[in-house]
Amino acid sequence: MDPRGGRRVTDDMRARMVAVLPRLRRFAYALTGSTEQGDDLVQETCLRALSRVERWQPGSRLDSWMYRIAQNIWLDRMRANKVRGEVVDVDVVEGLPGLDGRDVTESQLTLEEVDAALGQLPTEQRAVIALVCIEGLSYKEAAEITGVPIGTIMSRLARARQALHAILDAPATARAANVAAKTGS
Fold it and tell me: Which are the contacts of 44, defined by CB distance < 8 A and separation ≥ 6?
């Protein structure tokens, strides 16, 4: 125990947190749509988890707890952005290359289209897609992480899949415009 009355971070807990990092990073990227923002989200998640380790219940899943922390941080950021407006880093925008189909493989284009389509989904649906489809968690695990009933997870997932299908099934010119708008070309 920590002298202040809280639980201490053990070497075992640190090792378990490190083991979760690759999956947490994928989840963060799925939420943010950006490697940099995703990495920032992972870092903030780890800091918050370490500073509030006494809130984690031994015997419960550490990965689920950390996913929930990441999701809550992201939702807080999204709410704050609605109040402040979106912040654009001029240096990042300047360095973005334009899409040129001759230089990009078909698989990369498909991934960009899917990434752009994910970015068009509401945050709640994007989180469920990331947890269930990308991370492979069960509906029950996703429900525990997000704090909503399993039925809500199933409903959000169904709506997200329908929306992704509609976006990706749109004519190729509309998809290309969406990808170009997302990447700034």
Answer: 73
